[in-house]
Amino acid sequence: QVQLVESGGGLVQAGGSLRLSCAASGHTFSLYAMGWFRGAPGKEREFVAAISRSGDHTIHADSVKGRFTITRDSAKNTMYLQMNSLTPEDTAVYYCASRNSDSPSRLKQGYDNWGQGTRVTVSS
After folding, report:
1. Which of 33, 38, 67, 80 sits CB 3.0–4.6 Å from 92 for a disulfide?
2. Average pLDDT over every residue of 87-104
3. Any bridge partners for residue 120, and if so which?
4. What CA–CA distances, in Å, run from 77 to 16, 63, 91?
5. What is the C-alpha to C-alpha distance for residues 85 and 66, in angstroms, rounded to an integer?
C-alpha cells in the first residue's frame, strides 16, 4: 500500500524559510514522478511544484518560482520542498503526491497517491 507522509510544516514569520519533506513507502520511489500542491481555506487545491522520477526535470508554479525549490533523494525515498522568502499568501496545507509516470504534471488529476498534508502558516 502506497503511503506518503509529509512533515516540516509549522509557523514562520514572513521572509522566513521552511523545508517540507515527503517520505514515500509502498512503491518503487524511483519509478514515480512527484508533486507538491497546496490548499488554502476557501480555495481550490493548487499546483506548487513537480519533479520527474529521475529528478532532472522540475516545474514550479509562477507564484513560487525563484522562492521554492523541489528536489528528491531516491536513496532516502524522500522528496523535499525548500521554501524561502515566505509570505502570508503561502499559508496553506501542503500535500505531496505521486504518479506512475516519468513526467511531472501540474494537474491534480494526474496523480494517483496523496499524503495527508502538513500545515504551513506564515505570519505577517
Report:
1. 38
2. 96
3. 10, 92
4. 27, 27, 26
5. 9
